[in-house]
Write a structure and sequence with these properties.
With about 130 residues, the chain is mostly helical. It has two domains: about 1-45; about 45-130, Cytochrome c-like domain (Cytochrome Bc1 Complex, Chain D, domain 2, Orthogonal Bundle), CATH 1.10.760.10. About 60% of the residues lie in helices and about 0% in strands. The protein has six helices and no strands. It has helices at about 5-40, 50-60, 60-65, 85, 90-100, 115-130. Helix 2 (about 50-60) crosses helix 6. The longest helix has about 35 residues, at about 5-40. The termini are far apart.
């Protein structure tokens, strides 16, 4: 079978096209992932601190203290009034911790006991504690 001119270039162009398609697919997947996480974190605005305060006082004060300070400087509980502590956690992280608990930390899972709206209200209230401390 005779070799035609230009055939190696055609193979090279196909390889480049495949690389480009792969790079585009990866970029699209990355963009979708970012979009999905942004959308899931967008629910953070759904809660209100006022409503969350009542839920906090009913369910959380026993461990986290009335002001969310974690019951003392030697406590291993997070100090919600500390802006640095709260800055390191997204609202989705806080919501997930409330929902699923903290394995090995003593934090119970509240997902089956507190409805979703009230868990987002808790997130808003907990977040407001660090703003008040500034």
């Amino acid at each position: 079978m005779p070799v035609r001119f230009g055939e190696p270039r055609l193979i090279k162009n196909r390889r480049n096209a495949k690389r480009i398609r792969t790079a585009v697919a990866v970029a699209v997947l990355f963009a979708l992932t970012v979009f999905i996480f942004r959308r899931s974190d967008a629910a953070e605005g759904a809660g209100t601190a006022e409503a969350g305060k009542a839920v906090f006082e009913k369910n959380c004060v026993g461990c986290h203290g009335k002001n969310g300070e974690g019951l003392g400087p030697k406590s291993k509980l997070p100090n919600f009034k500390n802006p640095a502590t709260m800055k390191s956690r997204s609202d989705k992280d806080v919501f997930d911790k409330i929902t699923n608990g903290g394995k090995g930390t003593g934090m119970p899972a509240w997902g089956s006991l507190i409805n979703e709206k009230d868990r987002w209200n808790l997130v808003a209230y907990i977040r407001s504690l660090s703003y008040r401390n500034k």
